[in-house]
Amino acid sequence: MNRVLVLSNDVVPDQGTLVAAPGLRAFGLAAGLRAGGADVTTLVAADAVDRYRTAIGPVGTAPGVEVVAPGDFMARLEQAAPAAVVMINGNQAEHLRRSSGLRFVYDGFAPRVLELTYRAGGPSEEGMARLVRAEDRAMRLADAVVVNGRLKVGWYLAWLIRAGRDPRDLPVRVVEMTVPAAPAPPRSSAPPFTAAIAGYRHDWGFLPDAIGSLARIAGDRIRLVLVEGRHWGTSRRERTDPAREALAALPGVEVRPPMPWQEFSRFLAGVDLFVDLFPRTPERELAMVTRSIVALAHGVPVVHPPFTEVADIIAASGAGWLVDPDDPSAVVDLVAGLDPAEAAARRASAAALAAGRLDPATAAHPLVEIVREWA
Asked: pTM here?
């Protein structure tokens, strides 16, 4: 079974668009599968494309990427059989069913129940019930489960058991977050260091006071660039974040809108450190934080809290710094004491991480092995 179809819940970089975590997950898995010799097609949900076109603008075409209405997924999958199908979380499960010649891989990308729980105002009873039904259905369909990080393995084993599955009856493997990126070549860094904060706003990830403290010392030691906005699939109603508003108003901060993937990659080539700090919650504790992985994949060292799975990666590789997001002085002290030699060393460690553990061929290898076993 060499044919694999990846069901993407959002637009992917190949389409020349802005991108977010769901599309990047599909992008990375597809790249890893291709590196392992699979014939891969990414099916992008048409409703996600429609939302993007309405909110942002045109969506391009690319080889190996098809836009398909979710209601037509099964017809397209059966046309491709025999094939393996990678479904990212349970988003598309209501449109899928068992069929001869198809094997389903459930990708535990993000703990969506926790995400919904920590959104502004909390979850609605109807929304939570719908999400739980989708995850249960996906687990019942799965012939294998891959998990975006070891810390979430227990979470997804519990979902398998909830759905009436015996975890001993199917492969469960860790496939860490990966995105294909070319780390920038080594370069000398000197104050003022360029620090970036980038990503879409999450209700569960407001900027802590530490970021404001960093922005207020911008100048001789640090140049701070903020790249962010609301995701096109979210409600137009925005929750006020005074910390963000104050940050954007400071004279030492440059604010840029979100960029398409290729442009953002070029931007990261000129960044000395990537700052990704957020409050501690059960959702964040389980998260394989995409924006930090994206920075590391580009060879940019990351300033990160000490309580996530990415923190373990940074600590093991030396590809960044771990600071307490609740301590406003921690990141300021880091920047004040940072010298060019240390910045270069951390950057080199990030580049090595990008070329090894985070490379799609390495990260997605357990998924490649599952597909090969079905051949």
From this structure: 0.94
